[in-house]
Amino acid sequence: MKNYLHKTLASICLTALPFGFLLAQDGSAFATEKEKDEKKVRFNGLGRSILSQNTITGDILDADTNTVRRITDGEFLLDVAINATPNKKTEVQSILRLRNEFGGFYGAGVTVEVRELWARGIIADKIRYRVGDMDVAMTPYTFFNPNEEGTVNEAAAFIPFKDVINYEQFYTNNNTRRVQGAQMDFGLNFSKILDEMDFKAFIARVRGTDFFTVPTRFTSGGQLNFSTEKFSDTLGTMARFGINAAHTFDDLQSGEATAGIRNSVVSFNFDVTIFNKKKSSLNLIGETGKSFLTSKRDSITLSQEDDSFLDIGLKFKLKPQQLEFMASFIDVGPDFFSIGAQSKRVDFAANKTYYNRIGVDEMLRTPSIFDLSRDRALYTFRLSDQLMAYDPRFSNTMPYGTATPNRRGINLSVGYGNPNGVLEAELKASLLNEIRGQGTFELKNFTLVRASANFNAHKLLNWENKLRLTAGYQYEQTTRGGIDVEVLDLQSNLIEAGIEIEIFKDFELLFGTKILSAKGNEFIPLYGEFNNIQDFPAPYIVDDTETLLATGIRYNFKKGIYLTIQYQTFNSQRGQNNPNNYGFNQLFAVYNMNF
Fold first, then answer.
1. pTM to 2 decimals?
2. Sequence-distant contacts of 195-202: CB under 8 A, at least 24 apart
3. CA gyration radius for the chain?
4. The domain 2-594: what is its CATH number?
5. Which terminus of the chain, N or C, has less C-beta within 10 A?
6. Contact, 429 vs 344, CB < 8 A?
7. Pair 591, 537: CB distance under 8 Å
8. Which residues contact 335 (CB under 8 A, 6 or more apart)?
9. pLDDT tens digits, residue range 4-35?
10. In this structure, what DSSP letter does residue 237 have?
């Protein structure tokens, strides 16, 4: 089996060669302005090959004769983006995907699909529009895609699979959500007091009807952003502020559906520069608003809830020292609900790609740091009409991001350096508590500390080759007092570390680790319609330690084109001598090419 795997890994390198020649002929990953003028049709895209072998081990297999011990799979994929500019004011693009699963020969297992399709342009040299697929983000409380849990500052060894997840689920660094519909924006300039005004709006369909009981669902939103002139040239005082609205609704005229929801969020955000001097600056920042959630049957309102939120703070910068300090107060009401901001990236109820059930009793395996680091089946860009399930081991303070409801307290942070310097570091802390108790009048208290650092040692030592160290740490504690049945205390620690060593130009050794430990008890509510708590299942009791180690090599052909071969080992231990302890060993190769 090992010889077979080694031969297959070698075949990936051979598979990569045609892609390498294709890029060499093109000469550039992106079209230049000159090329845009000369060509009306351009081609670019992404090629990817993945092959992996996964082996399961551990005590849970002692009496299990059903679970397959080893799984080998992979894929070969090519996305070709066809971009056309029929005139200077119009642009269209389509991405055609060709995919073949590992083991598919002579056309077997090959799929062909259109991954993306959009058109955009300018009307009357003033209004920009886009129809089709688009990425949209507004504010963290209206329409936003919060980051996933289970990571603070991931090592480079884990980035290849995270890049695959981000690409497949259309995640961007700007926390956008992928939707399909239409959007437009335009701007105005003013001569007095106000400097600029920008208007943006969109509408998209996020669910189709089944022509019976499920109605078509739409989401829409708009932003009106203003910036002022400087009120004081000496201090640099000015302001930016905006009005935001997001609205998700069911079309009860579609199919035979008679019941649906309406969810609206309106907010006002601001960023006031109190002073901005050569060596320092101080800003007042924040957002406040309200949500409305309504259930309708025909034209009758069955139930309705609304709640508000407030997020206000200060940001202070010491520019020569590359230091930034932030402090804010948040108050997010228990009934605040925003479909566009609280829908999670990770769907903990989804089936896992590898070993979804294991053991003689076919136990449903809980998602682990191994799964969160590589399994795209757990990730989604869909909008959920109720609060999604979460795992308190990974995130319990703010499982739905900044917009997590029923939270009040302070957030603190300090940052140092920049990505291109010798050291970049950040420390964040959140001290929050519930506003309304869940199943009791006692309130939960939350403490969250997150720290990350990137150390470019080669810049300090003036080495030509890269030597980069990364680290991340998260500590979280949840407590609650009261009588014995109410008392809870859950603590978790997540440690991340990584090393990148460039042995010679473009050839790197990679090492990475993730360690998660969690111990204590919690009560996780079971949410029903309108996010009302229906029940508290059996107490959540954990004494877990998960360890993920990775080592491998990476060769960078050029920016965006690399081949990595790695070995990873994972171990899940649930207390001493627990018969459900298990582990994974994984050997994989990833070839990625952006052209």
1. 0.89
2. 195/227, 195/228, 195/229, 195/238, 196/226, 196/227, 197/224, 197/225, 197/226, 197/227, 198/223, 198/224, 198/225, 199/223, 199/224, 199/225, 200/225, 202/134, 202/136
3. 26
4. 2.40.170
5. N
6. no
7. no
8. 291, 293, 305, 306, 307, 405, 531
9. 344 443 443 433 333 332 333 333 334 455 55
10. B
